[in-house]
Design a protein that fits this description.
With about 350 residues, the chain is an all-alpha fold. It is built from 15 helices and no strands. About 35% of the residues are buried.
C-alpha cells in the first residue's frame, strides 16, 4: 500500500468515527416518538450510512490484513488471540459488571433503570458470546443494557474461524474464490433468519478480508490506481442516490441491500487506506478520527448512559452523547490503552530462515 501507516490509521479512524456516531446519534435522537414530516425525514436520512455494516467491513479489512501479514509467523495464533483478548475482553467484562451492579441496585431501590433484566435467555450466553444465536433462536433481544453486544458476538465468532482459514489456505486464488463464495452466499444465508448471525454478516466481514488481499497484490494495487476516479464517482453516486431515495421515502432492492452496502464500503475503505483522502474528505476525517479512536467504548456504553439519564435526569438526556464521549476518553487513556500496550508485548516473529544445503 502506498500511504504511510499513520495516515492510513487516521483515515480508518475517521471511518470508525462515522460508523459509531451514526449508530449513537440514531439511537439517541432519531428514535423519539415524534411523527412530524420533518422528523421522519431526518430519521430516514440518518439511515443513509449503515454504521454497523461499515464496522464489519473495517473489521474484516484490518483483521484480515493482520493475519495475512503474520500468517507465516511462528506462534501466530497465540499472539493474535492474546492481542484480541486484551483489546476486547476487559471493556466487555466491565460492561457486564456494570450491568450486574445496576441490576442489583435497581432490585434494591426500584429505580426502573431497565424495564427487564435477563430478558428471555440466561446470562451465560453473554459470557460465551452466544447472545446473537440466542436472540435469533428465541426471537428476543435480551437485556437492553447489553443489546448492542450481538455484533461483538458476530466478530468474536469470526475471529475463531478467520485465522485458521488465512493460515492454512495459502493459494491466493482459492482464498479469493472462497471469499467471493461467502459474499455471494450471505444474502441467501440471511433469508429466513436475520442479520444477527455470523452467516448473515459474512458479506461485510469477508469483503474487508478480500480488500486486504487485493491491496497486498500488485495487480490489485494497479487496478485501484487506474480506477481511483471512477471508484470515487461510484461511492458518491451511491450515497447521493440513497439520500434522494430517503427524501421521497422510497427504497431500492439493489441499493438497500446489505451486500451492496458492504461492497461500496469496501471501495470507500480502499480509497482511504491506499492513498491520501481526496480534499473534500480530508477535513471530515480529521474531525471524526478522535471519535474513531474512542469508538469501542462509545458503542458498548452509549445505551447504558442513556438509561441512566432516562432514570435519574430525563430532562438532561441531551447530554448523553457528550457524557458518553467524555467517559470514552477517560476509558481509553487510563484503561484501554494500557491494556492494548500490554497485549502488544507479544510480537509476531518473522519465520526462521534455515541455511541452504545446496
Amino acid at each position: 500500500m502506498n500511504a504511510d501507516a499513520q495516515s492510513r490509521s487516521r483515515a480508518l479512524d475517521g471511518l470508525r468515527g462515522i460508523a459509531v456516531l451514526q449508530v449513537v446519534i440514531f439511537h439517541y435522537y432519531l428514535l423519539l416518538p415524534i411523527e412530524t414530516d420533518g422528523y421522519l425525514l431526518l430519521r430516514r436520512l440518518g439511515g443513509v450510512i449503515d454504521g454497523l455494516t461499515l464496522f464489519f467491513v473495517l473489521s474484516g479489512f484490518l483483521i484480515g490484513g493482520i493475519l495475512l501479514d503474520a500468517r507465516a509467523a511462528p506462534g501466530m495464533f497465540r499472539v493474535f488471540y492474546w492481542r484480541r483478548a486484551c483489546r476486547i475482553l476487559p471493556l466487555y467484562f466491565l460492561l457486564l459488571a456494570t450491568y450486574g451492579a445496576v441490576r442489583l441496585m435497581d432490585k434494591q431501590g426500584h429505580f426502573g433503570l431497565i424495564y427487564y433484566w435477563y430478558g428471555e435467555f440466561p446470562f451465560w450466553n453473554y459470557l460465551v458470546f452466544w447472545q446473537n444465536e440466542r436472540m435469533v433462536r428465541d426471537a428476543v433481544l435480551g437485556a437492553p443494557w447489553l443489546v448492542v453486544t450481538w455484533s461483538l458476538a458476530v466478530e468474536m465468532q469470526f475471529y475463531l474461524i478467520a485465522p485458521w482459514v488465512l493460515r492454512f489456505v495459502s493459494d491466493r486464488r482459492l482464498l479469493v474464490g472462497l471469499g467471493a463464495g461467502c459474499v455471494l452466499a450471505a444474502p441467501l444465508l440471511r433469508s429466513g433468519t436475520n442479520p444477527y448471525l455470523l452467516t448473515g454478516r459474512l458479506d461485510a466481514l469477508v469483503a474487508g478480508v478480500l480488500l486486504a488481499i487485493m491491496l497486498r497484490n500488485t495487480s490489485g494495487q494497479s487496478f485501484l490506481l487506474r480506477n481511483r476516479k471512477a471508484l470515487r464517482v461510484l461511492v458518491g453516486v451511491y450515497l447521493v442516490t440513497l439520500v434522494l431515495l430517503r427524501a421521497v421515502n422510497a427504497t431500492s432492492p439493489i441499493l438497500d441491500n446489505l451486500t451492496t452496502t458492504a461492497l461500496v464500503y469496501a471501495v470507500l475503505i480502499a480509497l482511504l487506506a491506499d492513498g491520501s483522502p481526496w480534499p473534500v474528505v480530508r477535513p471530515v476525517i480529521e474531525v471524526l478520527a478522535p471519535f474513531g479512536l474512542l469508538s469501542y467504548f462509545i458503542y458498548l456504553f452509549h445505551l447504558p448512559v442513556a438509561y441512566v439519564f432516562a432514570a435519574f435526569r430525563p430532562q438532561l438526556s441531551v447530554l448523553a452523547l457528550p457524557v458518553t464521549v467524555g467517559l470514552a476518553a477517560l476509558s481509553y487513556r487510563h484503561f484501554e490503552r494500557p491494556l492494548i500496550g500490554w497485549g502488544h508485548r507479544l510480537q509476531y516473529r518473522q519465520p526462521e530462515r534455515f541455511p541452504s544445503h545446496s
